């Protein structure tokens, strides 16, 4: 209970800092809005993408949400480097707050930001014909939370290890582009040649996109749903352990 209370206090602290300058949250939505309104309408005439039961926008929006979550959360490590440079982390370390609370407070803020962005994307997709059930929205929220719990600690761990924006940026971009392109965020990988589908089988984000599409299309009994959730839970636990270890090493 003490750790949760400390995490809540730190979450409010980080959230207040974010609310003082919310422009970057809105700016991060510019790219997905461009994809939503300037690219998604082109998919209506793609043969095999839509059917009588599933629209093209329902196929595209889940992948877009995963893309938003990755680019929105993957780069939060830059904030950690800024905190290190300004001595914020050092000041927090000398308090009685546990290392778990220090990390969890930041991750909670990132998850909340991601949920706000997710809600805005869904609302903006509704005029384009998006349909989703109440259960689908709930499961989408859960899957976005897990993505945040997975990606934010990874970004923080890398930031603590590299301690430089010049090093962190290239490393993140090196992994981000292949992960996204091999996950089928723009188009389902069923359109890809066999060799590309085989390579994508090693990409964990691919299973998350498949789970998101099944949820949006109302196919909640699809095996990809529990596979995506199960994989994200394991990755979230491992990434949090890694980030916590990196934070303890940085404090030594």
UniProtKB/TrEMBL annotation:
Which keywords does the record carry?
Cell membrane, Membrane, Transmembrane, Transmembrane helix, Transport
**Which residue ranges run through the membrane?**
21-40, 60-81, 102-126, 132-162, 174-196, 225-244
List, alphabetically, the GO terms of the cellular component aspect. ATP-binding cassette (ABC) transporter complex
- What membrane topology was assigned to this protein in its record? Multi-pass membrane protein
Which molecular function terms from Gene Ontology are attached? ABC-type transporter activity
Segments forming domain ABC transmembrane type-2? 23-250
Where is the protein situated, by its record's location annotation?
Cell membrane; Membrane
Keyword rRNA processing attached: no
Q: Which domain of life is it from?
A: Bacteria
Q: Which InterPro entries match?
A: ABC2_TM, ABC2_TM_bact-type, ABC_2_transport, Nod_factor_ABC_transporter
**What protein family does this chain belong to?**
Belongs to the ABC-2 integral membrane protein family.
In Swiss-Prot or TrEMBL terms, this protein is called: Transport permease protein
């Amino acid at each position: 209970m003490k750790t949760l209370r400390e995490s809540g206090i730190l979450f409010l602290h980080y959230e207040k800092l974010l609310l003082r300058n919310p422009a970057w949250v809105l700016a991060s939505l510019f790219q997905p809005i461009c994809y939503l309104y300037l690219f998604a309408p082109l998919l209506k005439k793609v043969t095999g993408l839509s059917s009588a039961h599933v629209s093209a926008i329902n196929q595209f929006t889940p992948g877009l949400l995963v893309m938003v979550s990755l680019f929105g959360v993957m780069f939060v490590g830059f904030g950690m480097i800024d905190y290190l440079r300004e001595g914020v982390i050092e000041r927090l370390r000398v308090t009685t707050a546990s290392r778990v609370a220090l990390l969890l407070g930041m991750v909670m803020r990132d998850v909340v930001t991601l949920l706000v962005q997710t809600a805005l994307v869904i609302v903006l997709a509704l005029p384009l014909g998006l349909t989703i059930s109440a259960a689908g929205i709930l499961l989408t929220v859960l899957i976005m939370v897990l993505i945040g719990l997975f990606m934010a600690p990874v970004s923080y761990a890398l930031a603590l290890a590299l301690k430089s924006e010049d090093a962190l940026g290239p490393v993140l971009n090196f992994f981000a582009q292949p992960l996204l392109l091999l996950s089928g965020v723009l188009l389902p990988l069923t359109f890809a040649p066999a060799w590309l589908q085989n390579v994508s089988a090693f990409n964990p984000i691919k299973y998350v996109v498949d789970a998101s599409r099944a949820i949006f299309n109302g196919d909640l009994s699809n095996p990809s749903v529990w596979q995506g959730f199960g994989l994200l839970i394991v990755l979230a636990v491992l990434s949090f352990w890694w980030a916590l270890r990196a934070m303890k090493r940085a404090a030594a």
